[in-house]
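Retro notes, item 3 of 5
We never archived the inputs for the magnesium ion complex last cycle. Fixing that now. Sequence and ligand:
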Amino acid sequence: MSAAGILGRLPLLAKWSGRMIQIKTPHELELMRAAGLVVAGAIAAVRAAVRPGVTTGELDAIAEDHIRGAGAVPSFLGYHGFTGSICASINDEVVHGIPDRSRALAEGDNISIDCGAILHGWHGDSAVTVTVGPPSAEDAALIDVTERSMWAGLAKALAGGRLTDISHAVEQTITAEHHAYGIVDHYGGHGIGTEMHQDPHVLNYGRPGRGPRLVPGLALAIEPMVTVGDPATVELEDGWTVVTKDGSRAAHFEHTVAITPEGPWVLTAEDGGVAGLAPFGVSPRT
Ligand code: MG
Ligand code: MG
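Structure as it came back at the time:
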């Protein structure tokens, strides 16, 4: 094989602050889009099945069936020993809840569903929070601000910007609320590509204009985690489930986005981000 042929098969890496950031070719982003759509479909299928009485183990099976049916592989399953294809985090659980065949949802619960898939070696990663039955006013507001903060961050996934422009937009959206929501520290977004978790780490707060330059071919998972009360968290003895220390409820939203010359491309959104980015005056590549 020619040198150009070999180079064409290896992901490009851009160096920043001693860390290597994977830069995808347009073709590789097309492959990531295909993986992203598998994740979007899995989350839609799980979401449609959320109702009182369904177990988180059943929801997990729905996600796994969808992912495998699309010819993809669930990326969470077996990840450091994780036993599910989704994370199912209920009420005061923030992230990383383990699906369980004996744990049924009840009216009034909120559940965050986080899901990832690998297709042809490329990853997609996305999360939503939904309520079981009609939401309380508190849940409705929490879910709304968390989702809006994610879209505000995605709207800053613009070539020529800097990484913390995204972090800042997420934080500003949350702190602009009358209620003092908590922004969960320690967990955050990440680069994504041929692995689920890559550099750079994406904080959900911070001053703008810092960190790596946002360049076409960079792909990031943007994922705010917001609490009604104090943002402090603790990990349960199962070694996975992250809960709020004060027992207050949390929400989590996530999309995988690629920076392109034509704008953000929200790879895990069915419409590429058209509806979610519109309030920010941003048109995605679709
Ligand atoms: Mg995720
Ligand atoms: Mg993620």
